[in-house]
Amino acid sequence: MMNDNIVSPTDLQLKDETVVQIKRVSKATTGGRRMRFNCIVVVGDGNGHVGIGLGKANEVASAVNKAKEVAKKNIFKAPLIKGTIPHRIDIKYGSVKLMLKPASPGTGIIAGGPVRAVLEQVGVTNILTKNTGSTNAINVVRAVEKALKELRDPLKVSKQRGITMKEIFN
Hints:
alpha+beta; 5 helices
């Protein structure tokens, strides 16, 4: 089954990337500790397309570049309406419980660090979010990705149900 949300990175012009987190990790060896770096990067075009990548390397720059390349390969489309999401969604991913709720114009992005980074790259300008549970950046970013992929486009819903767009929002 092919997911119609996945987009080729060559088809769109990416705005920029955001480094969500750089974490130094170590492995205990007989000669001492071996340090490496984990990096989470989010890329997007600010128009509903976003990709998330995780990179690991011995140097920070290499980890960021790897994460950016992975993110470009994992770009998908999220439905947006007037700078916000079409409907409220509650997601549970691991021990992360995340709520995303559409907001009226002028509200801004009410979100914490990792959630804000992803939503800014998608192009959301007005949204309310609440994260209860784990604040692990990797799992929070993956929870946001899962939520954005599960959002339903009102146009598709109206066609499936055989009703008009106005009837959906009533």
